[in-house]
């Protein structure tokens, strides 16, 4: 496969993954699909505010994806210089994917912020009950009942942060592949008429 065609093949999934990451991050601001938690102080999971999915997995992937896609288009960036620049853009994408991956992993590890109580702490309070559990709560679903509000917040956070984690891993792999592809395109050309 020619390096320009490979760039197009890489860019299209990056667009989709960037969109998925941005949407997941936005939805995380509204647990139980209710705006009252976003408006209140201290009722949103801290890792959501880092905007890892929106900035890292979204914008920092979307911008490189546009340039990577253009390296496969004729009469634009489909030349050795464009492929050289795509290495830098892909490296920026790698940084964005790593940021998204780390915030999603941290969000999964610490668990959601919720109104909670358990046998040790009978008084209901807002906080992150699983923050010191090292992610063990993920395998002990009976602990998920500690969170009283928002309803099903643990499932909500686990689902969306897992989606962000998977998207970031794929973005990381695709950007790394594009760095190698860009290097070959810079050395060998893009299979177009203008090299």
TrEMBL record:
The chain crosses the membrane at residues 12-30, 50-70, 82-102, 158-177. It is a multi-pass membrane protein. InterPro entries: L6_membrane. Pfam families: L6_membrane (PF05805). It is found in: Membrane. GO terms for cellular component: membrane. The keyword Membrane applies. Keywords: Membrane, Transmembrane, Transmembrane helix. Belongs to the L6 tetraspanin family. This is Uncharacterized protein. It comes from Perca flavescens.
């Amino acid at each position: 496969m020619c390096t320009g065609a490979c760039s197009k093949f890489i860019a299209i999934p990056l667009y989709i993954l960037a969109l998925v990451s941005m949407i997941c991050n936005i939805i995380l601001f509204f647990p139980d699909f209710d705006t009252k938690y976003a408006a209140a102080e201290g009722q949103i999971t801290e890792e959501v505010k880092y905007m890892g999915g929106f900035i890292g997995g979204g914008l920092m992937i979307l911008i490189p994806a546009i340039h990577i896609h253009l390296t496969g288009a004729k009469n634009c960036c489909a030349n050795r210089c464009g492929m050289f620049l795509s290495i830098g853009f892909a490296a920026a994408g790698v940084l964005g994917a790593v940021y998204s991956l780390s915030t999603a992993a941290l969000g999964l590890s610490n668990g959601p912020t919720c109104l909670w109580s358990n046998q040790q702490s009978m008084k209901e309070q807002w906080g992150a009950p699983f923050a010191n559990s090292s992610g063990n709560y993920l395998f002990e679903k009976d602990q998920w009942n500690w969170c009283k509000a928002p309803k099903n917040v643990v499932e909500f956070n686990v689902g969306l942060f897992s989606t962000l984690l998977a998207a970031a891993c794929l973005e990381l792999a695709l950007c790394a592949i594009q760095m190698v592809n860009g290097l070959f395109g810079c050395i060998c050309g893009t299979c177009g008429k203008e090299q």
